[in-house]
Amino acid sequence: MPKTDLQSEHLRLHAEQQFAHELTSLAAVDDRQKPPNWKLSPWAVKIYLLGGKLDDGTEITAKYIGNERLMEIAIASLATDRALLLYGIPGTAKSWVSEHLAAAICGCSTLLVQGTAGTDETALRYGWNYARLLAEGPSHNALVESPMIDAMRTGRIARIEELTRIPSEVQDALITVLSEKSLPIPELNSEVQAVKGFNVIATANNRDKGVNELSSALMRRFNTVVLPVPDSFDDEIEIVQSRSNQLGRALELPAEKPALEEIRRVVTIFRELRNGVTEDGKTKLKSPSATLSSAEAISVISNGMAMAAYYGDGEIKAGDLVAGLTGAIVKDPVQDQIVWQEYLQTVVKERDEWKDLYRASRDFSG
């Protein structure tokens, strides 16, 4: 498919832009009942997320590879008046699923609040244009609406990333929105009432430093879906391979597609260190402090593609991967370095087909 001007100019497209053809094709064949203001039915949203082939021959790519039932629960939750919380360790595709759910349901994934330690109530509620506020006093013209208000007014999905990074007192601004489906604006003696179709998708992880636990009152307003790391070795291979290929095309890297064998090697290393034991179960290993998720494996492969493209012959080799592997695994320069060196000596060195990786690692460390 030829690139559009949009695809050639922008580094990253929103889901509804990148997969517009798939969404349009699904809408054309979707004759199932839709909840109010949904662009697609829950059936079509599931096909969009998990992939499939339509009767007209259109291939729908899988956006999520994993437990089908989890996606059904997530979609069904959003068809009710309960908000959805996607929970899990970093790198389990929470943000990715959130974006694609919003794109499929309401055609817009950009009503986003990015949670940080500095996020204040104005990001979740509203703020003021202070120049107009001083000149005119409190008025609708002086009001600066948040993405949450926009979603409420238009019956769309609002997304909140990293909810547990937001201070607890700010988190609780959500309680009224989620329980009453309205947001009071006392300065104007008015309120915003949510239109049918409005809902919230939040993401959170339990490994972040400085996590602010959610209050029980707020947790009760969410249906929680825990996204796990891939159970299957083959599933993780497929995730890393498909996303690496997508990134390579998006970044226009002049490298060959990463060889399946190199992807298998990176995924094997991550799974063994993550699980604390080799795949054959014979050797116990120490685990590093890093989560070593699929997202980090994708980053290692993408970095290797760039190294191979610009400083090699375009084909990924062990030497192109070793810097990315070391950076992903060694987050603590003392303890993680010990873990990585032990793994190199006890596992990598002993595998005949991995001799090139051992030599490249030894050369890299000097």
List the helices and strands and how they pair.
Elements: H1 5-9, H2 15-18, H3 20-29, H4 42-50, E1 52-53, E2 59-60, H5 68-78, E3 83-87, H6 94-106, E4 112-114, H7 121-124, E5 126-128, H8 130-136, E6 143-145, H9 147-154, E7 157-161, H10 168-171, H11 174-180, E8 182-185, E9 190-193, E10 199-204, H12 216-219, E11 222-226, H13 233-250, H14 260-275, H15 294-311, H16 318-329, H17 335-348, H18 355-365
Parallel strand pairs: 3-10, 3-11, 4-7, 7-10
Antiparallel strand pairs: 1-2, 5-6, 8-9
Helix pairs in contact: 4-5, 4-6, 13-14, 13-15, 14-15, 15-16, 16-18
Explain this structure.
This protein has 18 helices and 11 strands. With 366 residues, the chain is α/β, with parallel strands linked by helices. It has 2 domains: 5-226, P-loop containing nucleotide triphosphate hydrolases (Rossmann fold); 233-365. A 5-stranded parallel beta sheet has the order 4-7-10-3-11. Strands 1-2 form a two-stranded antiparallel sheet. The longest helix has 18 residues, at 233-250. The two termini are 45 Å apart.
Relevant terms:
two-stranded antiparallel sheet, alpha/beta, five-stranded parallel β-sheet, 2 domains, globular, Rossmann fold, single chain
In short:
This protein is of the alpha/beta class. The chain has helices at 5-9, 15-18, 20-29, 42-50, 68-78, 94-106, 121-124, 130-136, 147-154, 168-171, 174-180, 216-219, 233-250, 260-275, 294-311, 318-329, 335-348, 355-365; strands at residues 52-53, 59-60, 83-87, 112-114, 126-128, 143-145, 157-161, 182-185, 190-193, 199-204, 222-226.
